[in-house]
Amino acid sequence: MISSIKHTSSSFTSADFFPRKRFSSTKPRFSPLPIIKNSTLNDSFSSKKPIHVSTTQSFTFSQKEQPKQQQLLQTQCNAYEADRSRPLDINIEVLDEQARLEAAQRIKIGIYFATWWALNVVFNIYNKKVLNAFPYPWLTSTLSLACGSLMMLVSWATRIADAPKTDLDFWKTLFPVAVAHTIGHVAATVSMSKVAVSFTHIIKSGEPAFSVLVSSFLLGETFPVPVYLSLLPIIGGCALAAVTELNFNMIGFMGAMISNLAFVFRNIFSKKAMKGKSVSGMNYYACLSMMSLLILTPFAFAVEGPQMWAAGWKTALAQIGPNFVWWVAAQSIFYHLYNQVSYMSLDQISPLTFSVGNTMKRISVIVSSIIIFHTPVQPVNALGAAIAILGTFLYSQAKA
């Protein structure tokens, strides 16, 4: 603590503090506070200025009661002239910079996950509403990709986001990724047009099993024993949920299975395509959406066609009203946003954390869809879903 000693008629002088004989080998000890500028003491030091004492350890006003050898040590104090001092903030708190950065990163990841899950839940709700009123999954899938592509083109044109620097090799390596992404996207939409959202996502939780099988048989990769063991609850849970599903539909089931397989190949091709590339996750998904749109559009016209779309659109407007247009716009916008956030989160977190987050996302989608659409669920069906999701979590931990 810093104290102040003011000069009075009965006070001591500076000579009482410092011995008359100067020792060149003895250096005055000053306060270690970084904001205090120590001034060099000289013979012209004035005792008429108030003195701020930075330490009073072993300090005494009497020289007679102590041996002469100790007088020097006890009368030597650390002081500086008051008019050369600066205000001190006694409530200085030294924060660990690394701890602050880690806390900020955890908050950022939490925001990514919460946004990702919320957008995915909203997309699945509006997507199912659209498909119930307008059962044309090929057009619905096309509109989702078109909306995302348009949003990113506008963002690049207005400089809201920086456009990626790409070349011909980038688009060549992106093509197989886009093919797999297109197949997986359409297959999942076809599945949700035939069965409940919860059932589609229960089957899609079996994606790790497809990943291990493809990597083992086609790529020759091997995994630890716990990884293979974690596939048992995944496969068993999905099978139990499928057998006990009240509204089971083979097209919906196969659509979810094909989507799993396609997204496994998408991930494999994506890893190869991203090697040595400096494109951000957001821009990478934007380019992927644009190429997938070019691939999907001719197939959508061939499978469904404008005549079917016109008739279906007219029927949906008659049944739902103008809100149907909002449903279509919402499912298209939220589809792009949730995928964009998921790709952006990959830039910030490890693959293991992403896998755990993806598992929790499926839980949130399954639970919310059951509540909103009042999907009937048998206890055995719920048990199968829980086992499959638990297996997915164990898989992510075993592969870490």
TrEMBL record:
Lipid bilayer topology: Multi-pass membrane protein
One GO CC annotation: chloroplast membrane
Record flagged with keyword Transmembrane helix: yes
Domain of life: Eukaryota
Entry keywords, A to Z: Chloroplast, Membrane, Plastid, Transit peptide, Transmembrane, Transmembrane helix, Transport
InterPro entries in alphabetical order: EmrE-like, Sugar_P_trans_dom, Tpt_PEP_transl, TPT_transporter
Transmembrane segments: 109-126, 138-157, 250-269, 281-300, 320-338
Ranges where the Sugar phosphate transporter domain occurs: 108-396
The keyword Electron transport is assigned to this record: no
Major place of residence: plastid
Intracellular or extracellular location(s): Plastid, Chloroplast membrane
Gene Ontology MF terms in the entry: organophosphate ester transmembrane transporter activity; phosphoglycerate transmembrane transporter activity
Pfam families per the UniProt record, alphabetical: TPT (PF03151)
Protein name: Sugar phosphate transporter domain-containing protein
Species of origin: Acer saccharum (Sugar maple)
Source species taxonomy: Eukaryota, Viridiplantae, Streptophyta, Embryophyta, Tracheophyta
